[in-house]
Specification:
The protein is mainly α. The protein has helices at residues 2-22, 28-53, 62-85, 94-104, 110-122, 127-148, 157-165, 168-182, 188-198, 201-212, 222-247, 252-262, 269-277, 281-306. The two termini are 12 Å apart.
Length: 307
């Protein structure tokens, strides 16, 4: 019961966003404006402030990243093989289609879903662990997807690097970490301003996620959508738990953070990558929708297991 109470505020806010957009109380233009404001100002302010004032745990090492990213890469590979060898021929380039499908089955919505759950479950002290994962999460998976899909179109490392470096989330986390490491003391007035800007960040991000779900619908390729959803919500967190607990022997609290992040639904940015590569747009969109809906049931199960 306590676990349901833990995530129920998230569900309510996401549902309100969905209803607002579905009923057209909020127009698509309004949602787009709110999204730009949230992810280019409020969320970066929140991430910068938390990273700049965080106390870095001494136990973070290569094992921490290995326990998360090795299962992520394994899940990515499994999904790639499924899409590459067990699919009917289409007009899409098979390399691009397989890479994008693999991204949908392994890319977690760490900021919008994972961060607030970790915050409610473990408090502020665990946020730095989330930020360490977020910093490399998109860069690794988007780079891998782009490289594997490169045969479809001209691939540019400079373009990929430019998109990564100019990501507001990565910029804010990196600058916050730099301020923290150097030991720069943030003036009180600036810290207060960042706190004010940060306060609506999580709620707005969840609200916009709900509103964005109205843009997606289940495609005819239901078999692949269901498989990707099961890989994302069940297999990946199971592998992360096994790696963190049995292989790298991480602490219980660290294992909880990694499993929660891996058990999050597919991130919306996976669809943006699919649209950019012109591959598997409907399948990825459907996976975002189905995994988000099903995570309402799967996340409480993982939280119960971790408790």
């Amino acid at each position: 019961m306590s676990i349901l109470l833990l995530i129920s505020p998230l569900i309510v806010v996401i549902f309100l966003g969905y209803v607002s957009a579905k009923s057209q109380w909020l127009t698509a233009t309004t949602v787009q404006g709110l999204s730009k404001l949230t992810f280019q100002l409020f969320i970066p302010a929140f991430l910068f402030k938390q990273m700049a004032t965080a106390h870095f745990p001494e136990h973070v090492n290569a094992d921490f990243f290995g326990a998360f990213y090795l299962p992520v890469l394994l899940c990515f590979s499994i999904a790639w093989l499924i899409r590459y060898y067990y699919t009917t021929p289409t007009n899409e380039h098979l390399n691009a289609a397989s890479a994008v499908y693999a991204l949908a089955a392994s890319y977690s919505n760490t900021v919008i879903i994972g961060l607030p759950i970790v915050l409610m479950m473990q408090g502020q002290q665990a946020l730095v662990l989330v930020f360490l994962i977020v910093t490399f999460h998109s860069a690794l998976l988007f780079s891998l997807t782009s490289v594997l899909a490169a045969k479809q179109q001209h691939f540019s490392w400079s373009s990929l690097l430019n998109n990564t470096v100019n990501n507001p989330l990565i910029i804010s986390i990196s600058l916050g970490a730099l301020v923290n490491v150097i030991g720069i003391v943030i003036p009180h007035w600036l810290l207060s301003s960042l706190t004010l800007l940060s306060s609506p960040a999580i709620a707005l991000a969840l609200y916009i996620l709900g509103a964005s779900l109205t843009n997606y619908q289940l495609t005819e390729a239901k078999r692949f959508v269901i498989i990707a959803t099961l890989l994302k919500l069940m297999l990946l967190p199971a592998m992360v738990w096994f790696a963190a607990h049995h292989v790298f022997h991480l602490s219980t609290s660290t294992t909880q953070v990694l499993v929660i992040l891996s058990a999050c639904p597919t991130g919306v940015n996976a669809y943006l990558t699919a649209a950019n590569l012109k591959a598997q747009q409907q399948t990825v969109a459907s996976t975002v929708l189905l995994s988000t809906v099903m995570s309402v049931f799967s996340l409480p199960l993982w939280l119960y297991w971790l408790s």
